[in-house]
Here is the input.
Amino acid sequence: MGLLSDPNRRKALTSLLTRLNTPICVVCYLAGIAWFMGLAFEPFTLRTYMSENAMGSTMVEERFPSGERALATGREFEANKKKVGGMPVDWLVKTMQARGLEVFTQSFTRTLPFPDENKERFMVRGTNVYGILRAPRAPRTEALVFTAPCSPGNSNNQAVGLLLGLAQYFRSQIYWAKDIIFLVNEHDLIGMQAWLEGYHHTNITGMSFTPLQGRAGSIQAALSLELSSDVITSLDLVLEGLNGQLPNLDLANLFHAFCQKLGILCTIQGKLQRNDWDSTEGYTVAAQTMTLMVLKQASGRPWGDHGLFLRYHIEAATIRGINSFRHYKTDASTLGRLFEGMFRKLNNLLERLHQSYFFYLMPSLSHFVSIGYYMPAFGLLAAILLLRALDLWVQIGNPAPVTQDGVSEEEPPSSPGVLSVLTPIVISHLTGVALYTLPILSQEMAVEHFPVSETEAVVLTAIAIYTAGLALPHNTHRLISGEGTEQGWRVLKLAALLYLAVLLGCTALINFSLGFILAVTLVPAAACVTPHMPKSLGALSVVLLSPGCTILYCIFLFQDLQEAPVTLPECCVLFLSVISQGILDHALYGSLVYPLLALFVYPCWLLLWNILFWK
Here is the structure.
């Protein structure tokens, strides 16, 4: 405190920070990137462990014997699905009733804001079928959910068969202390959203659905199964949910523990963990796995049906069966015993999962990186914004040098007018509002005047507004107060730096991955942009570090890590698909990534663009 309260020491510290501002910022940026890349190295990770005592041991005997019968049920489900051309509701109701469940249905309707060309749908109508196995030894105040989506074609038929087989087996057991809900939802996430809103008596997405006639207790946990083959070589665990939410780490630990017990090959992000952590290959696989998790989490979309449960504070995960080239095979009976063991452990819970981590990254299923380890990487990047803001603050408040006669050597800089600073800020945010609202509102007009589909109209309108925004705030301060002052761009940049620091900080607290990715590209642009740099080079640099180009880089990186690299034209096609899917995810499920980028990140970047062309 003495250092800051003493004017001489404070002045010396400020002088040091301003004199070495650029080297310190460069070191912070490189250190932040290096810190993040080092998180996949074993000394920076922690071994996973079970925090919940009720699930600390896998000493239960799994006896599920009906794997082949479950596969036969799946084939029967597939035949009935082909017969009716969709969800075989009547067959599912009869089959669940024959297994002793209380069976109910829910109809729902959802009109999309524009057609989803990826799945070729606009008006979605469907029915969810669910059966409740009542707990024989408890007051029925708590419940678990086991769900399998009814997917089009030949997908996921085996998952429904295994779900029905487990329902029949669970019905014969007497140790259940929680209700178990077996749910088959139609139209994947839309059907799941309708069922969850009906179960919790909410309607936050404007969907039409019939009220649920049967309910169980408060849902404690949920598992979703995706299985499309009779033989499985490995199981992949999917954790990323809506807006980057993750389930409690103990749920992933439980899955990993039972896979090890039953000898099932398990992966995360499709990557099989290696034991040679100290080798280059081992580190590379761990870094790829962690980066894939960051990219998926930053997208804000739910990567499985489980992703929508997390909004209601229900710990959930999706388990996806993989049939690949590996020689190791797992039969349906072993998969059934895996789910039997997991549900028996979840059945033992006396309270919700809460003792383990909710904020983490996983380079493998046996190691994780806690929030205390990965947040310093973001903090180093955010510190650059504060250091540059401090430098600007000193420049703005530093008076002109004075001679011995008390006369200033040069005229003091004129103070910028309030309107000259506020005008770019207001117009930039109005452009962001247009980017958020106009693509959907103007799709009918675009279809009438141009030979494009509704989806193309929405995406192209968004791109047009994004591009037009480069000209709208350009030197808008001159509309009010004439020529901009030297102090004016400094004040505007100071406001932009502080605004960006607060924005990225709040984003990182909610979704670290999204905040970190935005910081990697936006922080250099915000730190370096000035009106005195070469305009062509500066414009190219700022555009390459824009939010739109950041999405393009993420698509390239994601496809490369998925071992499906794409060319530039293919990446541009995927870019258009990502834009349309982001708008749809916001309208259908409440994803916050698109409004965050349109209403806050893009206007903040436009302020940097305006600073570059300040005159």
Q: What stands out?
A: Confidence is low (pLDDT under 50) at residues 402-408. Residues 417-612 form one domain.
